[in-house]
Design goal:
This protein has 151 residues and is mainly alpha-helical. It contains seven helices and no strands. Helix content is 58%, strand content 0%. α5 packs antiparallel against α6 and α5 packs across α7. The longest helix has 23 residues.
């Protein structure tokens, strides 16, 4: 399948192991992992950052294999889930930084074009999240209030 706003067709992808059980050498229990996830979330880490720390520092490749539930679901159960889904948050953050750049360099036509593409991705993603009820139906992206969302 082709990319949304570029020419690539990209087939690069990582493959999950077939076995869905944690490795035999891993001694961490589900309760310990849950506690660790909550501790990292309280420090202000995003779900993907938590996953990277668990993978690189603690040898937990897949949280789901150890705990039986996904990382964001664990955060939601403990009331620590982010208000905005992480992918949407990152797109909004990018759009805000692009707008800041455009205020300084008004003649940068390429950045203006790329900003339009990023904002169309934001609108498309927001439409999806409203449909699956991860965002309230009244939520709307507005460039004027976007910087407050990512601050």
């Amino acid at each position: 399948m082709g990319r949304m706003h570029s020419r690539g067709k990209g087939i690069a992808d990582s493959a999950l192991p077939y076995r869905r059980t944690p490795p035999s050498w891993l001694k961490a229990t589900a309760a310990e992992v849950n506690e660790h996830i909550c501790k990292l979330a309280k420090k202000g880490m995003t779900p993907s950052q938590i996953g990277i720390v668990l993978r690189d520092s603690h040898g937990i490749a897949q949280v789901t294999h150890v705990t039986g539930s996904k990382l964001v679901r664990i955060l939601k159960a403990n009331g620590l889930a982010p208000a905005l889904p992480e992918d949407l948050y990152c797109l909004i953050k990018r759009a805000v930084s692009m707008r800041k750049h455009l205020e300084k360099f008004r003649k940068d036509k390429d950045s203006k074009f790329r900003l339009i593409l990023v904002e169309s991705r934001i609108h498309r993603l927001a439409r999806y999240y409203k449909r699956v009820k991860k965002l309230p139906p009244t939520w709307k992206y507005e460039s004027s209030t976007a910087s407050a969302l990512v601050a």
